[in-house]
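Training component of the fellowship. As part of building independent skills, the fellow (R.M.) carried out the full modelling exercise for a liganded target. The chosen ligand was C2E. The inputs are recorded below so that the supervisory panel can assess the work.
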Amino acid sequence: MSSLATDPRTSAPPAFDALVVDDDDFVRTVVAQQLRGLGAGEIALASGGHQARELLRDRPHFELIVCDLMMPDSDGVELLRDIASQSPESALIFMSSADPKVLRSVEHIAVKRMLHVLGSVQKPIRSASLKELVRRMARGRPDCPDERPCPGVTEAMLRDAIVDNRIRIAVQPQFNLLTGEIESAEALARWTHDDGTSIGPGLFLPLAERCGLMDALTDTVVERALEAVGMLQKAGIQMRIAINISPSTLTRPILPEHLVEVARRHDVPASRIVVEVTETGIAGDALPPLEVLTRFRLRGMELAIDDFGTGYSSLARLRHIPFTELKIDRSFVAAARADQEARRIVESSVRLARDLGLRTVAEGIERCEDAALMRALGCDLGQGFHFARPMPPAQLLGWIGSR
Ligand code: C2E
Ligand code: MG
Ligand code: MG
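Fellow's submitted model of the complex:
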């Protein structure tokens, strides 16, 4: 496993086995030495992709693989393919003197291959940078287990979960970055098992999509979400609720009416509902989704474009769809402090949103410094683990009370 318990005395991971791949003898020796100093047990060395592949075939359980991206017999992208198939649990560190943009792209490919990327170090390698990345290994994989394939889940199980009311929501508040007030919360689907464990949407949404269960799932989430705002309202707390609607559901003509009807039942004004759609959800030029989106607005609901910057939305689309809010994807938010380009993307997204009269939400704020930067860049709202993790609605009520 790539997740290692931390040794409380040193805050370093306990002994781990490592593979170092580089065609340069000197680099291999130096990195191996540094890793040994950081607690590595056994260290295998490979002088290129070919030898690395053989080593992985013989013993595919290195906790850590540190690899160069450009070797005479293979490049890092080719090697990633083998690591993904032979040693998917290994944590990865890339080292290279390549353009940082290329490094980022390799990291992105690795993440897409579900690998656990600790980060990259520029050559010549500084032991402090390597140490920082090795420390990350002790924290284990980031919070994305739900995106990994889980073969035990079947259509029948999901259908039962929907029928038996075991699909719940977690709500994550969104804060006004100037005043600190909670203005809204996003409803996120959760599948709760009998034993209390919860499966995230990354796993069951694709299944719901494949099995034609998305409409039923959406109805459940809508009901729970409006029930939650209704409950908060009764306790004197007024906020908007954001509900994610998948592209396939956007073609359902009855949806706007349905949301209004459920809202009415829970005494919630339609203006408190924010419908979130991703850029990919509106990628085509088909009429039905455009009609449904416009009808949400005609009925007084708000409309947010989710994960902005990751899809292919054209500026024309932003003009033709009556959005009221733009959510800047968390990949830009997380990178903005260290990476000029990401910061510029956030800056220009905020400017664009402002020019179009849209509210901006920065997603995935994990640190206090990120919140400060997003505020400085002019974002209106912030959402992320730094403020609050998604939680059951009843808990949000208590959480607000205790603030
Ligand atoms: P999203 O709509 O962009 O929702 C935000 C996701 O980011 C949530 O993941 C949330 O837990 C996560 N998140 C929030 N703050 C942070 C942070 O500071 N750091 C990190 N690393 N993550 C953070 P979740 O709940 O796993 O949902 C993933 C996606 O699944 C959602 O992304 C949304 O696209 C989709 N989804 C969730 N619920 C529903 C639903 O009811 N219907 C539909 N159609 N899609 C849903
Ligand atoms: Mg969303
Ligand atoms: Mg999002």
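The panel noted the following from the submitted structure. The radius of gyration is 23 Å. The chain has two domains: 3-137, 155-402.
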